């Protein structure tokens, strides 16, 4: 309906003449010649007042006048014959679009897409209204976009929350709390499915554990191991590593998963050096308690490994497997032969930039046909300079 400005006598779109002036003869009859005259009430309190687009209290007679004026001027908007069909097709198209697109977006993306679609439909309707006088029933279209957006936000919140809980539950036992919080913010960036990744793997094992276990009561041995493994895990976490598993008196950790680590070689070697320092501090504590002193050997190697959620139908775990992992374990065993606390494979040594390494030549590794080059942080060479004669 072509309303124009405020309603009532003050609007001056239609001329208002008092009925009392007409009855008392104060109005020239020629005023009504060739005019359409509407008789009605306009005073406040009469009751014939309606809310319109331009005024919450418009005289009913003016609404009739507006309709007549619009009809005479050809300015009455209406729904075209194809309106319901066009809107149904538009609603269907938008429904398919948002149903396909929105599930792949985050909360911000859903908000932007919804706002863009609603704004586009509004502008399209405005253009049709201004240029063609069409009034299109868009309530269903608007409602569809809003409802689908709300559903996707709700589902996304539930799915993301479930994924966040799964990440926290799975990785809370492997990485530091800070890394878990970082992963929980964007769980979709840290898939648990197994994949090939470059890793740096560390094995640390207590030397002479059989002798230690033989000399201790089971309860004391349990506390002894718990203390050792706890302190080693803290070191790994401080250097942003992932604790894979405990194997009796040994610990396996790696860098590069689930969070990518461009400094994985440096972090792993730094962790190994700190582990040896922590062992020295633990020995002071153990000596005070009358417990056997401990020494550990650490092997580190880098390479491509399969990492992720693996296992059987009955039990699964987040772990890494591959030749690079096996070689790291072999290097840990070789520390006894070299009489050194830490041995590092060639692949790791190539990526180390913050620690000076001493090349030790090549050595045989059980299960491998080729000899491998090994290195050791120079800080340990000064302490234990002996190298076995088998090295060339």
Provide structural commentary.
This protein has 392 residues and is an alpha+beta fold. The chain has 3 domains: 65 residues, no CATH class; 81 residues; 190 residues, Alpha-Beta Plaits (2-Layer Sandwich). Helix content is 47%, strand content 17%. It has 12 helices and 10 strands. Strands 3, 4, 5, 6, 7, 8, 9 and 10 form an 8-stranded mixed sheet that branches. It has a two-stranded antiparallel sheet with strand order 1-2.
Shape: rod-shaped
Q: Please work out how many helical segments DSSP would assign.
A: 12
The CATH architecture designation of the largest domain is 2-Layer Sandwich
Strand content: 15-25%
What is the N-to-C succession of helices and strands? HEEHHHHHEHHEEHEEHEHEEH
Provide the CATH top-level class of the largest domain. Answer: Alpha Beta
Secondary structure category: alpha+beta
Comma- or semicolon-separated keywords:
single chain; 392 residues; alpha+beta; Alpha-Beta Plaits; two-stranded antiparallel sheet; 10 strands; 47% helix; 17% strand; rod-shaped; disordered C terminus
Offer a quick outline of the entry.
With 392 residues, the protein is an alpha+beta fold. The chain contains twelve helices and ten strands.
